[in-house]
Amino acid sequence: MAFEFNAATGNTSFPLINHGLNELSDAVSNDSIFKDFYLKNGSGYDSFTCEPFLTSGSVLQAEWFKNTAYFLYGIVFVVALVGNALVCYVVWSIPRMRTVTNYFIVNLAVSDILMTLFCVPTSFLSTLILQYWPFGAELCPSVNYAQAASVLVSAYTLIAISIDRYMAIMWPLKVRMSKSQAKLSILAVWVAALTISSPIAMVSCLFQPNPRYTMCNRYVCQEIWPSDHQQYYYSIALLILQYLVPLVVLMFTYTSIGIRVWGKRPPGEAENARDQRMARSKRKVIFVLYLFIIRL
């Protein structure tokens, strides 16, 4: 679907769905939702109001829902932002914490911060509170792009962590991944994530789904694909690259690690209390590593 450029204003207008007044009248007369936005007089529902945009009977307008949503989203926002920022600060400020594994963990924290800052507030306001997109045409593709990219970065960073742990457990005497190699791996993760999610930025635009949005000059931000086939094939590719591939890799690496750690018995005098405590610690570490899979 082509974009239109206004040479006089220098603005790009996104494709919109517009309906005639006759269609709007028919929709209003047949849909009780629209009746809440019209003040009836002698000639019918022709005096239009857009505030509030949500109908009074909607659960999204209920005070208990708003208070609950603000509370839960507030907790998620603060905990995610502060927690991930602390991870970055600790690794940056303490030299001995700058290990290969911690580099990957910092990259994971950065992707979470990106999601927290750019996606959580906008999704919360536009989806639950307002029911329309108030942030302008420019932020629509940017936010959708950032959201998709951050999810891919998280998934591929988990893959990198699992491979690093797998190599350390399966071949402990071999040379470990260097910090330079870890940085190159992180760069590759970001390049792959930004490339795979780029189509989302191209098809995300403002959209008016029904006459109510048209008359109120309200929009929603969503993906408008040129054809259903393109959307279908991209969705399948995204499912494979974003979920199935990471899931298979994580299941393989952590299952192999678990089998090696649980099945390995220390030689000689390793039955003493000290080595038993070490074995229990290893099992706890493996349990924590398995929790990474749940993150997907």
- Which architecture does the CATH hierarchy give at level 2? Up-down Bundle
Percent of residues in beta strands: 5-15%
The helix tally amounts to 11
CATH class term:
Mainly Alpha
Helical fraction equals 55-70%
Q: Please tell me how large the radius of gyration is.
A: 26 Å
Fourth CATH level, the homologous superfamily: Rhodopsin 7-helix transmembrane proteins
Give me the count of strands: 6
Q: Give me the CATH fold name.
A: Rhopdopsin 7-helix transmembrane proteins
Biggest sheet: strands side by side, in what order? Answer: 1-2
Largest sheet: 2 strands, antiparallel
Shape: elongated
List the domain count as a whole number.
Answer: 1
Classification by helices and strands: mainly alpha
- Report mean pLDDT, rounded to a whole number: 77
Termini separation comes to 33 Å
Low-pLDDT regions? 1-47
Q: Would you list the SSEs in sequence order as H and E?
A: EEHHEEHHHHHHEHEHH
Transmembrane segments: 70-92, 104-133, 145-163, 184-209, 232-255
Keywords: G-protein coupled receptor, Membrane, Receptor, Transducer, Transmembrane, Transmembrane helix
Subcellular location: Membrane
GO cellular component, one term: neuron projection
